[in-house]
Amino acid sequence: MSKKNSKTPVYLKPFHKTKYSYEKLKVCKKCHAFSILGDKTCPDCGKPDLIPVEEQAARNAKHSMHTAVLIAVCIGLLSIFLSNSFLQMALCGIVTIVLIGVLWIVQRNVLDTESIRALDKLFYANQKNVQDGIIEDYKAAIDNWDTDKQRCYEMLREIGTLLHNDMMRLRQLTLLQTFLLRKDMDLELEPLLVRKYEPVLVDYIGELAKIKRDLIKDRTFQYIMAFEPEIMGQEQGLDILTAVAGAAVRMKHYVRSYAGFVRRYAYNLPKDRFLRLYQMIEQYPNEDWGRLSEEVMRIYTEKYQWDPDFQQKSQRGHSI
Fold first, then answer.
1. Transmembrane ranges (predicted)?
2. Are the beta carbons of 44 and 134 closer than 8 angstroms?
3. Between 34 and which of 133, 151, 276, 303 could a Cys-Cys bridge form, CB atoms 3.0 to 4.6 Å apart?
4. Which residue range forms the structural domain that includes residue 259?
């Protein structure tokens, strides 16, 4: 059985991205445990009381504001009670109503700012609880490692938005390499890049270079070039490097930025990728391609000068 056929077909749930990673974190209204995995049911106490931390922070801010209003009301009532005449009582009552109205307007205008402050206070006061919650989420994910790899990956993917380390990334990559990857999957790459050479990451990059070239960006090219000798020593290493070079050909920026890398593998590019590279060089003859343009012309002369596909000027855009 081939390596590809031994992989498991899966349907990965779409990954919901947020502007800030903390937006995925939730807190239980009952036991105050934190989780990034729970929907509504708290994984700690089992109660259906999980809410986003931003909602909890807004509640805390409103509670503080309501407390301030209550204090103002109490002070106003006390001033009325201590008044010596009806006129003083009326004046104190009017002043109290005006001050409470002004306070309410000010609070309404600063609610967003106060909610952000309340969120900072919430995180500061619950640092250990947040850490404990993420650790418990991680343990829950790993419990699925042998029984449900798809569920395990999806859980680790969520946890990875808050827990950034190479161990988390490598576990996700290991699981991804057991799946039969498809172009229509909601996959990611840059969040999974690690600092050192890892064959499992290189294999994953090689697959994406064939099915989802748009995920191959600057950081990935730089990673591949940093460990090029090690990758060449891998089984299928040349194929992976060639596929990554083919991914670079989709944009002029990448070809120009990594011209030396593309040049080294231009000879092995599939015809369609080399044709695109050839057309790009032809379209921008005044661009500083370094030695790449010479290599492209050499390969063209050796392999494709009589090919009719190379005789037509490309009318295509340069973002494939």
1. 65-82, 88-106
2. no
3. 133
4. 222-320
- Among 231, 229, 280, 275, smallest CA distance to 254 is for 280
Domain finish residue from 103, 125, 147: 125
- Answer yes or no: is 135 within a domain: no
- Structurally, the chain folds into a number of domains equal to 2
Distance separating alpha carbons of residues 27 and 41, to the nearest angstrom: 10
In a domain, 181, yes or no: no
Which residue has better confidence, 49 or 168?
168
How far apart CA 289 and CA 295 sit, in angstroms, is 10
Looking at residues 289-313, what average pLDDT do you find? Answer: 89
The one-letter code for the residue type at 281 is I
Which of 100 and 273 is assigned the larger pLDDT? 273
* pLDDT for 257 beyond 90: yes
Q: For position 29, what pLDDT does the model report?
A: 87
pLDDT computed for residue 269 by the predictor: 96
Q: Which residues contact 144 (CB under 8 A, 6 or more apart)?
A: 151, 152, 155
**C-alpha–C-alpha distance, residues 7 and 179, integer Å:** 5
Per-residue pLDDT at 253 exceeds 50? yes
Q: What is the 3-state secondary structure (H, E, C) of the chain?
A: CCCCCCCECCCCCCCCCCCCHHHHCEEECCCCCEECCCCCCCCCCCCCCEEEHHHHHHHHHHHHHHHHHHHHHHHHHHHHHCCCCHHHHHHHHHHHHHHHHHHHHHHHHCHHHHHHHHHHHHHHHCHHHHHHHHHHHHHHHHCCCCCCHHHHHHHHHHHCCCCCCHHHHHHHHHHHCCECCCCCCCCCCHHHCCCCCCHHHHHHHHHHHHHCHHHCCHHHHHHHHHCHHHHHCCCCHHHHHHHHHHHHCCCHHHHHHCHHHHHHHHHHCCHHHHHHHHHHHHHCCCCCCCCHHHHHHHHHHHHHCCCHHHCCCCCCCCCC
Cβ atoms 181, 211 nearer than 8 A: yes
Closest CA to 281 of 264, 268, 299: 299
